[in-house]
Design brief:
Strand content of chain C: 15-25%
CATH topology of the largest domain in chain A: MetI-like fold
CATH class of the largest domain in chain C: Alpha Beta
Radius of gyration of chain C: 21 Å
Distance between the termini of chain A: 9 Å
Largest interface: A-B, 55 and 61 residues
CATH topology of the largest domain in chain C: Rossmann fold
Structural class of chain C: alpha/beta
Strand order of the largest sheet of chain C: 6-7-8-3-9-10-12-11
Number of strands of chain A: 2
Number of helices of chain C: 13
Largest sheet of chain A: 2 strands, antiparallel
Oligomer: heterotrimer
Family (chain C): Belongs to the ABC transporter superfamily.
CATH architecture of the largest domain in chain C: 3-Layer(aba) Sandwich
Structural class of chain A: mainly alpha
Strand order of the largest sheet of chain A: 1-2
Shape of chain A: globular
Shape of chain C: globular
Number of domains of chain C: 2
CATH class of the largest domain in chain A: Mainly Alpha
Chains: A mainly alpha (337), B alpha+beta (586), C alpha/beta (341)
Number of domains of chain A: 2
InterPro entries (chain C): AAA+_ATPase (IPR003593), ABC_Ni/Peptide_Import (IPR050388), ABC_transporter-like_ATP-bd (IPR003439), ABC_transporter-like_CS (IPR017871), Oligopep_ABC_C (IPR013563), P-loop_NTPase (IPR027417)
Subcellular location (chain C): Cell membrane
Protein name (chain C): ABC transporter ATP-binding protein
GO molecular function (chain C): ATP binding; ATP hydrolysis activity
Bound molecules: adenosine-5'-triphosphate, iron/sulfur cluster, magnesium ion
Order of helices and strands of chain A: HHHHEEHHHHHHHHHH
Number of helices of chain A: 14
Helix content of chain A: over 70%
């Protein structure tokens, strides 16, 4: 088990390195192939109508004149050993892991990422609770009452949930619940948990529900299918023959087995979400990693893009590692290998 | 002559003040019943020529939002119209646009300075005298040194790459100047100096007439040297205006509160009504419109108008439409007709494009009359001082003239037409629609267009504004748009028609490469007489149109919504949006 | 009245294709300490019958009629909750495939403990001791260690022993074993059957063994019920069925019995055709499409359903042929053929 974890962690590292190189490559090499000079690249980070001198200075400051490999080396060095940042009136130390400074705002990337993580985490955790509880219970009930009105209604809704995009459901829900009815706060009304937990939950209610709706749909359908399958298994019959209460049969014997594939999905989904619930955060103006990612890409802010991509990738990798380990806990048959 | 115009301006301003009981301007009396606002009836364009819902009531919180983020809050490092407008809440500059509605909004009045600039040496030296009693938020006195230092630091484009470089270009900087950070002891008095505590003197390389417009830009907002932290100054700007920063989280938002060191006696132009101003940035643009409509926020800071989604909701609804103003702004949407790309190197071929274009279809592509703008027949937009409207390529119903286009093609030696490529910004649906309209119209005379869309963020750096790319890929037409930095000919035209600004990449002048145009620009820039100068800019406009290297599409209009509960709302021509320093809340 | 008395049991499933008459008027009884074997081809309704007795069709789609008397108590009319309380305690079941019948995620011990604690209010430790005991009694070596193993860590025979331990954990008075040895190889089969016989005499419970293999029931059962298409076609003592069988279907089963002196696949008198669909059970005698003697009943087989009639001393047969005709056929044709092969 221990060597397995070590191997996985090393694999994850290798993966992150590859991801960082690919991201870096897309950012620097592709424009060069398209014939962009360092100045052309720098002209994205100056004000409008900047003079050639300004552009040249900025290209120099951002290091665009160096070969890509040198630039990449500088990035890695910052991550490992930290870097220095000259803000004109002085020099600032950026301790490792230093993802560098935004090309646009000049803000250090790492503290910004850390700062935004709780928002995304808050969004993901609340939505996850809602969608797992909601999706799984709807799926279970649908499976147990297959063909009933409830089953048809919830599976129809689930289909809608999977196919409607968040920026649509999100915008509609804001217009209806926040602006027309006034039940929920307007977009962008995030309050930190440490400031006021009740306000925190209230401000996230609508994003949670919208996001959970999207995922709950998938989970309901998957749970339903899984339950239909496991409830037909022989061991369910055995459990009943023992005289177990039906509730225990369903939850302890049926659901436990049906949840295993859902666990895998959940791990990946949750990992991806922590890496940034891009559409939800953009729609509701939540200052999380997803919004950060969108802004970074829109602004072509390389250090921010690198930072958010690596952090997001790390979450996915860690989540899938945790899922694999949990899998062994859940299903004893996996433990042997 | 300039003084005369200023006088006339003052007279008109007084008239407007009486009519609209505006809170801005030099301390006017208010009708008692509207002192707290709220009595106004919303009507379409009600804030265009007078103050809507006038009020002198202080207090309350103004909630504002921005669909993206500032380039920088540092007065030396910002270059957006909204930033210039909004920044005046926490900074003061030597001069400023006259606050309030109507055409006077285009005129410049003193702010920190006692009067407008005094030119000498034929317009090569400009002197500004500061008022007394000016203070920073920490209570220290604002002196001419702080203004000169602000200008000096803004020179450093390595630290402040975003701000305009007008002063870098205009002033006579020392040859070996490295900026105030690399060389803290450098003497740059050859460019700008404080000859005493209240006198700032600018030394220019060439005579330049529009200096009062330039110094209303925030590079002249005073910065205390001992509080200057270079690129990090934007995190904690020291206020010289009526508000100061309470909090500032870059990328998320900030809050302004009253600056008790600001003395209204030195500042008749800022009523400073709200107690607090809360600003959220990076708000989803569509949600921002919804919040503005619903009243959860009161001000869309960017000030370019509603998004397409909201337009569809607002225009058909009389109650919502009554909350909007629809000004023509100093912005032109146009097509660059690039003379480097054969056969467009022949002026007759460019003229063929002018004749063939269907201006009505182009206007429709931009959203029509209200959302898009007025059909443009020449380069300078109507709000520019001294603008003249003329039309060298008038066609029946503005729908294009196939015969004249064919004659031009024949004269160009391409009687059967030709093929070329047109670029547009793919993230701008209106430019895409424009490209498609052009494709259809030009096809009628045998000019075949291939359309290519590119991301807006690298459009000028990598594609349409990149000389190599344009040459290699034979780009003939490029969708383009330009807004004015200040409402005179120089402010609008210089960046897009002066061929000497063209460099390898990041160009905004994509197509105007004409010696005569350049010569006229120099002449106009140096002309100190307002009327004569305006006339010269009209000549530049005519030359460019004769050159047929710019095909005007529309003079843009924006549809601005007045926030719920907002008082003292007025469209200001100088800002080309609502005047943010006037605003109050009910 | 017997300890278990099933009277005219019908279990029908409405499906999209029609009504599946899995059990259609079945009656039988078992006493404490006695063993009944139920034999029939695949799909004849054996499992449905046993699940029906345990009340496991309750609450589903099944339409159940008839009476199930257990120890003087009628179960078909009783509430689902009441029957659940009896399940596992008073009556228990051993299933065909022990691998799929045990939950893969729970240890064997956990599953036995669970079965025990539903019906006995004891601590986990006590239940665990009991589970270890039970595992020891069914012949699992080192039960104290194996109690924590998972089903997949057991061999097939051990799993079946564990299943038996689980079923017996509450001392049930009625034990139904549904094909308890089908999934096992021959030697293990014999061991399991021995174990069941020993345990039955020890616990003195009523035992029903369900199988499609007459060989399994030969040694174990006192009585045998031969099922075809949801009904009983012959019923009698083990001797009756093996030495004096009177139904053509039973003959067929005897003929296809695997014997040690023959290849298992080789059949002397195979039953031609395949079992009927339980949706469209053939008119008349359900067996007639496959019966080699159908023509001897002058067309009655196709039209009229034969009744289950007693030939002699509790031996029941469902066939239109006369008793004499059947006995003559058995003595003269079938028995000699079976013996010479
Ligand atoms: N829940 C159900 N719904 C519909 N039909 C069913 C159901 N359960 C059993 N059946 C049908 O009833 C018939 C009898 O099934 P049963 O499982 O009792 O056969 P069996 O005699 O045990 O066969 P095997 O030897 O293969 O175990 C089969 O045709 C089966 O398809
Ligand atoms: S009734 Fe006829 S068909 Fe049925 S078993 Fe007897 S002989 Fe065969
Ligand atoms: Mg069966």
């Amino acid at each position: 088990m221990f060597t397995y974890i070590i191997k996985r962690v090393i694999g994850a590292f290798a993966m992150l390195i590859v991801i960082s190189m690919v991201t870096f490559g897309i950012f620097y090499v592709v424009p060069q192939w398209a014939g962009a000079s360092p100045e052309a690249m720098a002209s994205r980070y100056v004000g409008r109508a900047a003079t050639p001198e300004t552009v040249h200075l900025v290209a120099e400051r951002l290091g665009f004149n160096d070969p890509v490999i040198v630039q990449y080396g500088r990035f890695v060095k910052g991550l490992v050993a930290g870097a220095e940042y000259d803000y004109g009136a002085g020099v600032e130390q950026c301790p490792a892991p230093c993802f560098g400074y935004s090309f646009i705002s000049g803000q250090p990337v790492w503290p910004d990422l850390l700062d935004r993580l709780p928002v995304t985490f808050s969004l993901a955790i609340g939505a996850a609770v809602l969608w797992v509880v909601g999706g799984v219970s709807v799926g279970v009930i649908s499976a147990l009452r297959r063909g009933s009105f409830f089953d048809r209604l919830s599976m129809g809704t689930a289909l809608a949930g999977v196919s409607l995009p968040i920026f649509f459901t999100g915008m509609i829900s804001l217009v209806v619940f926040s602006y027309a009815l006034g039940w929920t706060p307007p977009g962008g009304a995030y309050t930190d948990f440490s400031v006021n937990p009740a306000q925190w939950a209230y401000s996230l209610l609508l994003p949670w529900i919208t996001l959970a709706f999207l995922f709950a749909a998938t989970y309901a359908r998957l749970t339903r299918a899984g339950m239909l399958e496991t409830m037909g298994e022989d061991y369910i019959r055995t459990a009943r023959a023992k005289g177990l209460h039906e509730r225990e049969v369903v939850v302890k014997h049926g659901l436990r087995a049906a949840l295993t594939p859902i666990l895998t999905l959940f791990g990946i989904d949750f990992g991806l979400l922590i890496g940034g619930a891009i559409l939800t955060e953009t729609t509701y103006t939540l200052p999380g990693l997803g919004q950060f990612a969108i802004l970074a890409i829109r602004n072509q802010d390389m250090p921010q893009v690198m930072g958010v991509v690596l952090v997001a990738a790390m979450f996915v990798v860690v989540a899938s590692l945790i899922v694999d380990l949990l899998y062994a806990v859940v299903d004893p048959r996996v433990r042997l290998s | 002559m300039r003084r005369k115009t200023a006088l006339a301006g003052a007279a008109t301003a007084a008239l407007v003040l009486v009519l609209s009981a505006c809170g801005g301007g030099g301390g006017t009396q208010q009708p008692a019943d509207s002192s707290s606002g709220g009595a106004a009836q919303p009507a379409f364009n009600a804030g265009l020529n007078e103050v809507y819902n006038p009020s002198t009531k202080k207090g309350g919180t103004l909630k504002a939002a921005h669909s993206a983020d500032w380039d920088s809050l540092d007065p030396g490092d910002t270059y957006y119209g909204y930033s210039f407008n909004f920044g005046r809440l926490y900074w003061r500059t030597l001069t400023m646009y006259k606050p309030g509605p109507g055409p006077e909004g285009n005129t410049v009045i003193p702010d920190l300075a006692e009067g407008l600039g005094e030119p000498s040496d034929g317009g090569k030296t400009w002197t500004y005298k500061l008022k007394s009693g000016l203070k920073f938020e920490d209570g220290t006195e604002i002196t001419a040194k702080d203004v000169a230092y602000a200008v000096g630091r803004s020179w450093d484009k390595k630290t402040f790459p975003h701000g305009p470089s007008y002063l870098n270009e205009l002033l006579d900087w020392p040859k070996d100047f490295k900026g105030v950070y690399e060389d803290p002891d450098a003497d740059y008095s050859s460019a700008v100096e404080a000859t005493d505590d209240s006198t700032v003197v600018f030394h220019l390389k060439e005579p330049f007439a529009s200096m009062d417009y330039v110094v209303q830009m925030p590079m002249t907002a005073p910065v205390p040297k001992d509080k200057d932290t270079g690129a990090k100054y934007k995190e904690k700007v020291v206020s010289s205006g009526p508000y100061k920063f309470e909090t500032n989280e870059i990328g998320k938002g900030f809050t302004l509160v009253r600056n008790d060191q600001w003395d209204p006696a030195t500042d008749p132009n800022r009523p400073a009504l709200p107690d607090r101003i809360e600003v959220q940035v990076n708000v989803n643009a569509d949600d921002l419109d919804n919040q503005l409509i619903a009243g959860d926020i009161q001000l869309d800071i960017v000030g370019t108008g509603l998004q397409a989604a909201a337009l569809g909701k607002v225009l058909p609804d009389p109650a919502l439409k009554a909350r909007t103003d629809n000004p023509t702004i100093p912005r032109l949407w146009y097509v660059s007709v690039i003379p480097d790309t054969p056969p467009l190197d022949n002026v007759e071929c460019r003229k063929a494009v002018m004749w063939a274009a269907d201006r009505v279809a182009n206007q429709t592509a931009y959203g029509g009359e209200l959302a898009g703008g007025e059909i443009a027949t020449n380069v300078l937009p109507p709000p520019i001082v001294g603008q003249e409207k003329f039309d060298l390529y008038a066609t029946p119903g503005n729908k294009g003239d196939v015969n004249k286009a064919k004659q031009a093609l024949a004269a160009c030696g391409q009687p059967n037409g030709f093929s070329t490529t047109m670029t547009y910004r793919s993230d701008r649906p209106r430019e895409k629609a424009l490209a498609e309209a052009m494709e259809q119209a030009l096809a009628k005379v045998g000019i075949k267009l291939t359309l290519k869309g590119f991301p807006g963020s690298s459009y000028f750096s990598d594609y349409a504004g990149n000389v190599n790319y344009v040459k290699k890929n034979g780009i003939g037409l490029a969708a383009h748009g330009w807004g004015s930095d200040w409402p005179d000919g120089y402010g609008f035209m210089q960046a897009i028609v002066d061929s000497r600004t063209i460099r390898d990449a990041g160009n905004y002048n994509l197509s105007v490469k004409n010696d005569e145009v350049d010569k006229l620009i120099d002449q106009a820039s140096a002309e100190l007489d307002d009327a004569a100068r305006a006339k010269l800019w009209v000549d530049v406009d005519k030359k460019v149109m004769e050159d047929a290297s710019i095909l005007p599409v529309v003079w843009a209009k924006s549809l601005l919504m007045r926030g719920k509960g907002l008082t003292n709302v007025a469209y200001n021509e100088g800002q080309s949006m609502f005047d943010y320093i006037l605003l109050g809340v009910e | 009245m017997s300890f278990l008395d099933v009277k005219d049991l019908k279990i029908h499933f409405p499906t999209d294709d029609g009504l599946v008459k899995s059990v259609d008027g079945l009656s039988f009884s078992v006493e404490r300490g006695r063993t009944l074997g139920i034999v029939g081809e695949s799909g004849s309704g054996k499992s449905v019958t046993s699940l029906g007795v345990l009340g496991l069709h309750k609450g589903g789609r099944a339409r159940i009629s008839g009476e199930i008397w257990l120890d003087g108590e009628e179960l078909n009319g009783a509430t689902a909750e009441h029957v659940r309380g009896l399940r596992g305690k008073k009556m228990a079941m051993i299933f065909q495939d022990p691998l799929s019948s045990m939950h893969p995620y729970y240890s064997v011990g956990h599953q036995i403990i669970e079965a025990y604690r539903i019906h006995n209010d004891v601590s986990k430790q006590v239940a665990r001791k009991h589970a270890v005991d039970m595992l020891g009694r069914v012949g699992i070596p080192e039960p104290g260690r194996r109690v924590d193993s998972y089903p997949h860590e057991f061999s097939g025979g051990m799993r079946q022993r564990a299943m038996i331990a689980m079923a017996l954990s509450c001392d049930p008075e009625l034990l139904i074993a549904d094909e308890p040895t089908t999934a096992l190889d021959v030697t293990v089969q014999a061991q399991i059957l021995d174990l069941m016989r020993d345990l039955q005499s020890e616990f003195n419970s009523a035992l029903i063994i369900i199988t499609h293999d007459l060989g399994v029931v030969a040694e174990l059962s006192n009585d045998i019920l031969v099922m075809y298409a949801g009904r009983c076609v012959e019923y009698g003592s083990t001797d009756d069925i093996f030495y004096r069988p009177e139904h053509p279907y039973t003959w067929g089963l005897l003929g296809s019995m695997p014997r040690l002196d023959r290849e298992p696949t080789e059949r002397l008198m195979p039953i031609k055709g395949s079992p009927p669909s339980l949706i469209n059970v053939p008119q008349g005698c359900a067996f007639h499409p496959r019966c080699p003697f159908g023509e001897r009943t002058e067309g009655k087989a196709e039209t009229a359903a034969p009744a289950l009639t007693e030939t002699e001393g509790g031996h029941l047969v469902r066939c239109h042929m006369s008793r004499d005709e059947r006995r003559t056929l058995w003595e003269n044709e079938i028995k000699p053929a079976l013996e010479t092969s």
